[in-house]
Amino acid sequence: GGGGGGGGGGGAFHAPPPRSRSRSRTHGRSIAASFGVGKTPVVIGGVGVGVVGGGSSRLFASSSSSSDDDVVVAPQAFGTGYSPHPDLLTALQEATDMALLQLPPPPPPHASASASASAVAIDLAIVTVSSLYDGQTSPSVVVPAVLSSGSTYGDGIRNLIGCTAGGIVSSVKNEDYGETIHSGGGGGGKSSSTGEGVTEGTIKNVRECLPVESEGVPGVSVTLALLPDVQVKTFHVHEDDVPDDLVGPAAITAENWKAAVGLRGVGAEEDKDDKDDDDAPTFMLLPSPGFQTSLDDFLAGLSSTFPRSQTFGAIASTVSSLSRARLFLHSAENPNAPQTAGDGCVGVSLAGDIRTKVMVAQGAKPVGGIYRVVSGEESTIQVVMLDEAATREELDAAAEDDDADVDDDDDDDFDDDDNDGGAPKDAKAAAAAAYAKAQIPKPVLAEANYLMKTLSDDDASFMRRAVLIGLERGGSMGRSPGELLRLARGEGHRFAVHQVASAGMKDGSVTLPLGSVDVRKGQRARFFVREGKFARKEVEALWTGYKKRALEDALLKNTNNEAPPFEPRAAMVFTTLDRGTKMFGGKAGYESGVVSSFLPTAPSIGGFFSNGVLGRLDGDHNKNSAGIIGGKADEEVMVHGSAACYAVFGSKTQRPIYSPAAAAAAAAAAAAAAEDEPAEQRDDELGRSIRKANDDNDPSGAESSSSSAPRSPDGELIIKRREVHSGRAISVSTVEWSVAEKTASPTSALEGYMWDKETEVDRFRERVPLSNLVSQCKLASVDPTKVGPRDWIGPVKERGAGADGTFVIIPECKRTEPTTGSLRKRYDVAKLSRQLTLSGAPAMSVNCDAVLFGGSMDDITSARESSSKAAINAVDDAADDDDGIAAPPILASDLLLYPYQLYKLRLAGADAVTLVAGALEPKDLLYLTKISASLKMQVVASANSEVQIRALTSLAKGSVHALVLSNRELEDFGFDETGERALGLLKSDALGEFREKNVDVPVLVEGRVGMIEREEDGGYLRELREAGAFGAIVGGGLAEMAENGGEAYEALKVQAAG
């Protein structure tokens, strides 16, 4: 149903107009909104604000809708505005004005006393401001600016809380919401889906709002809420205000604790014996980073004083550690109180007709087996022992569900790095594996060290930096064993993950943060690591479980003829600074996008990137099965690092939702139905202009912006080189400065890649100047002990010069892909080079980029030394009549922008270099090819368009030694999964012109080669060969086929030969 109606958000939007043809008027504007499928207008003092779905008329104070003075139940309404304007005051005004446009119009001054303007106000404002404004404008202007902009709505804003943040989560109005494409009846035109005659069609866009995520750039988000029949109280708690005497003979009373922290009078209804959990208050907290020392005591006091309350929130943050987080607060009851603070904790309590559902995503992937605590006390775990039955149950569940992502130790334990051919492990490795699996008590650190040997490079690297241990929560028995499977079924997390605070080097024990948990003997435990791919699946599974519970709840209530189920009105997304683009593979807006997809009819999404989130792991949906861990309720509110907290707001009594999009649609329908009066249109120009500005300036690439990267008339990306004084973090020695002026943001992945590469080169220059590199290269060229660059293209041509026209496969060693993450479980460039050398590769490519692909200059040196050693050993072992093998020359794959990089690659041992034509101007191509020639390194040019091929054709003959046609899209660094881009370029006129001038230059292909599927195995390779390709450079395809590079290379050669 549209606008959050009882049917959920997945079906076609049908909102019949009001049964009555009379319209309410507010300052000359017609306004109505539709909720579900009902037709009863909702009015407050003659102002139409919505349509209540069938079955909800019981909420009305008066069921008649014919009188302009009837008073009915007011809707619960949320509106969110976002502005990226670089001026703080302008951004605050724009964001507040945009949020106001999402609220129902206030009653006019002449309305009846029962709903006078003086009785209408905004109950709560939540404000988030990027810390990059700090230093430009005083934080003290934030609250007055928002209050001033909000004063145009009735009595203005009664309560406000907020903080600064290192990143903003917000939303903007979806202008296309509810538009339908008709599939029958009367033509195929597009129209608003508000007419009763609309019976067929598909929704063009079913999301009421479009999420926005911005990280490290200025931005402001303002959420305004109308909360009828909700008691709202804001408070500010200082560190010294928090009592710590909660237990013992001298324990403070609940009333005294409330008075100490400023919550006197809150929760009075909850204290009554006949009240249940639905009468408990909800607390939203925004602590400052410095308040964390008292945060545990404050959360414990809240849990003790309000045992049935719902608590969530996030810790304020900043972009730079040099900035200080700020908190914002306002209450109409105490207007003279300080409105800006640098310490303590601000919060709001909500009691009455409001319900909040909270979930937490931990972002932690389980690894290894499940253990039982043999010895431990308080927060320390000393000895653990493998629980074989629980481990086997978990692995069986992972086998049934491909998304479980649980490592099977039986397959991969202690893979010997020197075991290339699959020979049996040596005695030492076998003994180590047996010890790790033995059901004997072992110190925690000893078990962690053995576990690291079984993990992928990324997982092992993380575990060396931090050890995460999850302790089993109560109520887990009899539920699905797999972590993701549990979440997708709505059963909640099995383990609560904690980061080890300290370790005992002598006894191998680990200690969790004090006060976080009381370890008990026999409790199950497990190791965890952070991983983006699993975190993505966890978010999706968590919301799948939410949807499953919502559907079950709706079916149950319909079966029992109870009140309508919980309907989402708005959502808050609190995530930590290390998530976002850092965790989700460079994709901005992922988490808020998932929330929007599962809550399509929610008109508001807000939040920010924090220093930590607060909340129960599974909110309130597991309270019936909550167990006890070490004497503590396992549903106790916790502080979670590297996590996300999602809070969904709704009404207990299912009062109507105000939908801005549905209101606009209903207003248009009502205007069209009135034949005796001219149409009255609501002017939404301000909202559109702000949204357009957001589309033009939003760097997140989130769904809120429909614009793509700028391109020239010939279709090429317009690339701007880095602005040195743009608003990004600038490191000077050990000091990091955050510059807010003249903020710049990349318009494409390539542009951002280039800016990061330029920064990387600048740092290299600070350590080693260019003149030093030039001198080293000159000395190396005359030193007879130094081996110079080898012929890279020669062996490639020889391999493909046979009578059968062999399609040459050139393997590439690459650690990661920007869009998919790690390619191999363990990336060892020396081992991989050795395998490829022994398999007879004529040449190979090594990706040494550290920005996007996880490589380094040392990879070039390591690959050259390993392959040379493997070739020498092969010659020594060869029979007399066997010529042995040759070490393949190395192509350095990197984004080259400066001659400085060429000199570094020459010293690292590269034989050839790659130049990306799409990133270089013609003059830069000419300059870099000349420098490469002076260093005796060959050039392999990469192009993905005809324009780029023609730019390479304009170079002097002999400048380029090989041309690579790429399936990669430089705008987002994704791939053309069909492979048609390269095939089209092979048949293009531009390539024909290139070949006429460069007859002996082979043309290769890269990008998903070996992974693009055709009906027959090797079909894409055959298409490339038939289209005129000489060969292909393959990296990801080799990694997908087998961990052993040599075996994968041999298999791909067989496909190419077919």
Summarize the structure in words.
The chain has 1058 residues and is of the alpha+beta class. The protein has 27 helices and 49 strands. Strands 21, 22, 23, 24, 25, 26, 27 and 28 form an eight-stranded antiparallel sheet that branches. Strands 38-41-42-43-44-45-48-49 form an eight-stranded parallel barrel, surrounded by seven helices. Strand 41 (844-847), helix 19 and strand 42 form a beta-alpha-beta unit. Helix 1 (88-100) runs parallel beside helix 2 (142-150). The longest helix is centred in the middle third of the chain and has 28 residues, at 532-559. The protein is globular. The protein starts with 24 loop residues before the first strand and ends with a helix. The relative contact order is 0.10. Residues 1-70, 111-118, 180-204, 402-425, 621-634, 676-706 and 724-743 have low confidence and may be disordered.
Descriptors for this entry?
single chain; 1058 residues; alpha+beta; 8-stranded antiparallel beta sheet; 27 helices; 29% helix; globular; disordered N terminus
Radius of gyration from CA coordinates: 32 Å
Average pLDDT taken over every residue: 77
User: Strand fraction band?
Assistant: 15-25%
Helix content: 25-40%
Distance between the termini: 54 Å
Question: pLDDT under 50 segments (min length 5)?
Answer: 1-70, 111-118, 180-204, 402-425, 621-634, 676-706, 724-743
Coarse morphology: globular
**Tally the helices: what do you get?**
27
- Per DSSP E runs of 2 or more residues, the count of β-strands stands at 49
Biggest sheet character: 8 strands, antiparallel
**Structural class determined from secondary elements:** alpha+beta
